[in-house]
Amino acid sequence: MNVCVIGTGYVGLVSGVCFSDIGNRVTCVDLDENKINNLNNGIVPIYEPGLKELVIKNTNEERLFFTTDLKAGMDDADIIIIAVGTPEKESGEADLRFVEAVAKSIGENLSDYKVIVTKSTVPVGTNRRVKSIISEYCGHEDFDVASNPEFLREGSAIYDTMNMERAIIGVESQKAGDLLTKLHEPFDTTVMVTDIETAEMIKYASNAFLATKISFINEIANICEKLNANVMDVAKGMGLDDRIGEKFLSAGIGYGGSCFPKDTKALIQISGEVEHDFSLLKSVIEVNNKQQQRLIEKALNRFDRLEGKNVALLGLAFKPNTDDMREAASIVISEELVKHGANIKGFDPIAKDTAKKVLPSEVMIAESIDEAIQDADIIMILTDWQEIKDLDLNKVAALPGKPVIFDGRNCFSLDYVGQFDLEYHSIGRPSLVE
Ligand code: UGA
Fold first, then answer.
1. Over the stretch 81-124, which tens digit does the pLDDT of each residue have?
2. Do 292-425 and 203-290 have the same topology in CATH?
3. From the CB of 257, is ligand 1 less than 6 Å away?
4. Model pTM?
5. Which bin fits 342, alpha (ψ -120 to 50), beta or left (φ > 0)?
6. Residue pair 8/28 in contact by the 8 Å Cβ criterion
7. Ligand 1 mean position to 345 CA, how many Å?
């Protein structure tokens, strides 16, 4: 099949690359000439395991193309995928400027039947709007629109796409449903065909539910701390019940990234528009905002003042295996530490450059974990990168400052830490004091 993907951000690039890898001819279109030139030379704008290799492989095998020319990209396509950004407006609602601009350009260039699929996360009703914009500009209705939300996670985006658990296809016609079902056949996945509004809602409801699971376990963690219980074991015990499931029950310093924070706020906005007060989801967000401050609270309880303290922040990206700093807890935490007059050294295996751009200028970025922790009084673990989980605690215990560890991602078992002469505070578990 011939597929045109518009927008080479996370979703567009990963989907385009994966659709080409399963044998389609894919053209990815973006307005950014520099990005397209780079992609044509195998230079990938984001860090995502396995992506670069697949870009190079499929470009060399002439199944994957990159261009700034929308008309050329969509002319031979059976399916056009819209995967442009839907950033958050001040009010929390999704900004549809880019989606609408793309719909207009598609309309201006649409001559024969195609299925136009929205993969960007868009409020319920957006595909109808896309349809009316396209027909306004092309002057006919010989096309279908469809919603095909994506469920990939940054850091494991290729794996998630190649091994997708389900494909949700929201359509108005059997023809579009059949074409998109065929496109997904090689993934050997469960395809659910539904109406457009339902597909749009499945995406928001899924992200809101996962965010709810995280805030729920974080609340349980905070209670566990007061009752001397261990939240990791509580989560494990809960997860043994199939109806609950073990995933997304890792307590920590809350969720970040480009999706949960934005999509939960957007769903509250969407609910408000139909006069529904989504109070549960409002609490989920409130709990998350508080949770991002937990390590600061713990450090203040322990030290009273953080002024002049040397703090090493380990893991700056919003989660492991990505250089994405959007809504990362490290931003809120380092801003708060700066206010308290602490000296901060941050380390991240991959996100050093992206971190430099968004963290306060007072944060020094270290080249290695050793450099970050060498004169630390406090170590705060913010992201559970493997390199951080592999940290040699012998080495930490031998440091001159005898740093106190505040672990926001429960990277180590209490039994393991207990073998060292260390003070260790984590989330939802008893503290270990020397
Ligand atoms: C999320 C969803 O998991 C994807 O299904 C969805 O497609 C994507 O949003 C999207 O809408 O594009 P992502 O934001 O990339 O994916 O990353 P997650 O792995 O979901 O993690 C989000 C945040 O939750 C991270 O900050 C992570 O540390 C935190 N988290 C996750 C927890 O605190 N506890 C958990 O148990 C799981």
1. 999 999 888 888 889 999 999 999 999 999 999 999 999 999 99
2. no
3. yes
4. 0.95
5. beta
6. yes
7. 26
CA count, 13 A, side-chain hemisphere, 44: 19
Classify residue 109 by burial, with Cβ atoms within 10 Å: 0-12, 13-18, 19+: middle
- What CATH number belongs to 203-290? 1.10.1040.10
- What is the separation of C-alpha 184 from the centre of its chain, rounded to a whole number of angstroms? 23
Best residue among 88, 119, 214, 287 to mutate for probing ligand 1, ranked by most atoms within 8 Å of CB: 214
* Domain ranges for the chain: 2-194, 203-290, 292-425
With 0-12 / 13-18 / 19 or more C-beta atoms within 10 angstroms meaning exposed / middle / buried, residue 46 is middle
Look up residue 382 and give its DSSP letter: -
Catalytic pick among 18, 28, 224, 259 = 259
pLDDT in tens, 259-314: 999 999 999 999 999 999 999 999 999 999 999 999 999 999 999 899 999 999 99
Nearest to 118 by CA among 110, 109, 128: 128
Residue with tokens 């492989």: 57
Q: What is the CATH number of domain 292-425?
A: 3.40.50.720
Residue range 2-194 forms a domain whose CATH class is alpha beta
Who contacts 146 (Cβ-Cβ below 8 Å, separation ≥6)?
A: 115, 116, 117, 118, 127, 169, 170, 171, 172, 176, 177, 180, 196, 199
Helix or strand or coil: residue 200? helix
d(Cα 117, Cα 12) in Å, to the nearest integer? 12
Does the C-beta of 347 come closer than 6 Å to ligand 1? no
